[in-house]
Amino acid sequence: MRQTTAKTQLIVMCVLAAAGFGGQGAHNSQQLTVESSQEKVGQYEKLELLIRLDTQYENPFDPDQIDLVVLLDAPSGERVTLPAFYAQNYERRQFSQGRSGRNWYYPVGQGNWKARFAPAETGRYSAAARLKGPSGDVQSASVQ
Questions:
Q1: What number of other Cβ atoms are within 10 A of residue 65's Cβ?
Q2: CA dihedral 115, 116, 121, 123 (to 10 degrees)
Q3: Spatial CB neighbours of 133, under 8 Å, sequence gap ≥ 6
Q4: What are the CA-CA distances from residue 79 to residues 15, 73, 113 (Å)?
Q5: Distance from CA of residue 101 to its chain's centroid?
Q6: Which has fewest Cβ within 10 Å: 29, 76, 125, 139?
Q7: Would you say 90 and 107 are in contact if contact means Cβ atoms under 8 Å apart?
Q8: What's the start-to-end Cα distance of the chain, in Å?
Q9: Burial profile 89-110: b = 16 or more Cβ within 10 angstroms, e = fewer
Q10: Going edge to edge, which strands form the sheet with 136-139?
Q11: Burial class (CB in 10 A: 0-12, 13-18, 19+), 114
């Protein structure tokens, strides 16, 4: 009987941990990657970087829970630190009510982390994401 109870408790704990309960609002694995929206971008054109992390936070807008930046190394050797931001895509629907209309916004998919940059100099840049959180610091591999 005791062995069955211990197994049940272990299973419940594993399920709760996988669901994100029982911690500081974050998982401990902290995998972090950076992806570029395009391979080439012209001088002063917008480049959007997508930052993927497998850690979810209770409040992604609280810098005490998560501080996420992208470190860019410019062709000149200068290092630029870009703050990342949490974004949610929405679908807009317009409804007409009598003489006026109303806009409703519905979330599409999961929110994600992004950083935007417009290069002032031409050449090859490299970027890596750095996460500071309650479980420690993590840095992604560099991308060009």
A1: 16
A2: 60
A3: 26, 30, 55, 57, 65, 66, 67
A4: 42, 5, 21
A5: 34
A6: 76
A7: yes
A8: 58
A9: eeeeeeeeeeeeeeeeeeeeee
A10: 79-83, 67-73, 126-133, 136-139
A11: middle
- Determine the Cα–Cα distance for residues 120 and 128; give it in Å rounded to an integer: 19
Burial of 72 (0-12, 13-18, 19+ CB in 10 A): buried
* Residue range 10-29, pLDDT digits in tens: 333 332 333 333 333 333 45
Residue 20 to residue 42: CA distance in whole angstroms: 41
Helices (H), the chain: 2-19
Element (H, E) at 115: strand 112-117
pLDDT tens sequence across 100-136? 778 889 999 888 999 999 999 999 999 999 998 887 8
Amino acid at 130: R
Quote the tokens at residue 36. 């570029």
Rounded to two decimals, the pTM is 0.67
Neighbours of 137 (CB within 10 A): 10
CA distance 133 to 4: 37
- Identify whether the C-beta of residue 36 lies closer than 8 Å to the C-beta of residue 127: yes
